[in-house]
Amino acid sequence: MTAEVSAKPHLRLPAEWEPHAATWITWPQTPADWPGKFQPMPWAFAEIIRKIAGAEGRERVRVLVGSAQVESRARGQLAKAHVDLTRVDFLRIPTDRGWMRDCGPCFVESRGKLTIAGFGFDAWSKYPEFQLDAQVPAAAARALGLELTPVEHKGRQVVFEGGALDINGRGSLLTTEECCLDPEVQVRNPGYTHADYEAVFAQSLGITNTIWLANGIAGDDTHGHVDDFCRFVNARTLVLCEEKNAADPNHDILEENRERLEGARLEDGSRPEVVRLPMPAPLYFDGMRLPASYANFLITNAAVLVPTFNDVNDRLALGILTEVCDRPVIGIHAVDLVWGLGTIHCLTRQEPQG
Q1: Hey, which residues does 167 pair with through a beta bridge?
Q2: Which residue in 179, 180, 241, 346 is the catalytic one?
Q3: What is the CATH number for 181?
Q4: DSSP label at residue 133
Q5: In a structure prediction context, what are the per-residue pLDDT tens digits for the chain, which is 354 residues long?
Q6: Contacting residues for 86 by C-beta, under 8 A, at least 6 apart
Q7: Are 281 and 245 in contact (CB under 8 A)?
Q8: What is the domain extent for residue 319?
Q9: Do 342 and 44 form a contact (C-beta atoms < 8 A)?
Q10: 306: which residues sit within 8 A by CB, 6+ positions away?
């Protein structure tokens, strides 16, 4: 199911594979995000930052820290992990949690210059602590000297998260009805319809073509983020997760999304190429299903960083992504990370090259 709307022609949301000026990440400082597993988190983040800033990713990393004390700890741990600190900027921007993909700045090209789309953030309409996270886009705009453009519709600020969309840089956007349109669970924008969201995407991001998928995967705390199961890897190619075990709840969820993509069109009317990506075996911790998925990868300037799970499908997933991506693919151990209910893509936000 797709829809075409009239977009502002001077706006464009760059694709993730286009050149980055930097990647943004928040240094982990909230033990409640990884209860019982917080101790290894700084080292897991240090490895991600090392790959982005080093020869593999070849770009700057902007690390948000809440205080001088947090910055001092972060510098020490990054140095021990052999991170090139000349490629790391520390920004004193306090946050409630660490999910930069969702609360961080949404960079948009406007007449050849970068601006920030001022979406609202309310912790996925689920958690009470979000007041600091909600201020991150404004703080980022001040830090970089960029214009922050409020995103409003029907007289109120639009609440939306970066993990709820994926784009191809040419006008097509993926999202889910579960995240955007559920009238009872984690309702971000009460009363909004397909048409309302399509108008928002067109007017704030320059999107001309919205592809509506159905539901997100089991264990997803966000209630339907698309970046856990379906991603663009170039302007015409999508990877879509596949669960072959018919008894797993993700089997039917992902098959319905596959059926939707069979009828989907890109912004030029052509069909996208859809490549199937396996799912790892289900992961649980303390009785909770976790949203483990190879689709939560991050595309950097010179590599693709992919979460891995000590699973027999790790090698297969890395091989498939190697075939469809135009840069080296690197696995990052994410068994501990995913206890926070997200992995590499959820934790980062790319800043396009202005």
Answers
A1: 173
A2: 346
A3: 3.75.10.10
A4: G
A5: 444 466 777 899 999 999 999 999 999 989 999 999 999 999 999 999 999 999 887 999 999 999 999 999 999 999 999 999 999 999 999 999 999 999 999 999 999 899 999 999 999 999 999 999 999 999 999 999 999 999 999 999 999 999 999 999 999 999 999 999 999 999 999 999 999 999 999 999 999 999 999 999 999 999 999 999 999 999 999 999 999 999 999 999 999 999 999 999 999 999 999 999 999 999 999 999 999 999 999 999 999 999 999 999 999 999 999 999 999 999 999 999 999 999 999 999 999 997
A6: none
A7: no
A8: 2-352
A9: no
A10: 294, 297, 317, 318, 321, 329, 330, 331, 332, 344
Residue pair 42/77 in contact by the 8 Å Cβ criterion = yes
Other C-beta atoms closer than 10 Å to the C-beta of 275 total 15
Nearest to 187 by CA among 231, 123, 243: 123
Q: What is the CA radius of gyration of the chain?
A: 19
Is there a catalytic annotation at residue 346?
A: yes
Q: What would the two tokens of residue 310 be? A: 């000590």
Report the number of distinct structural domains present in the chain.
1
Q: E-strand spans in 50-171?
A: 60-65, 88-92, 106-110, 113-118, 147-150, 152-153, 156-157, 166-167
The C-alpha atoms of residue 18 and residue 146 are separated, in whole angstroms, by 20
Q: Token pair for residue 283?
A: 């992961």
What gap in Å lies between CA 212 and CA 175, rounded to an integer? Answer: 6
Secondary element (H or E) of residue 348: strand 348-352
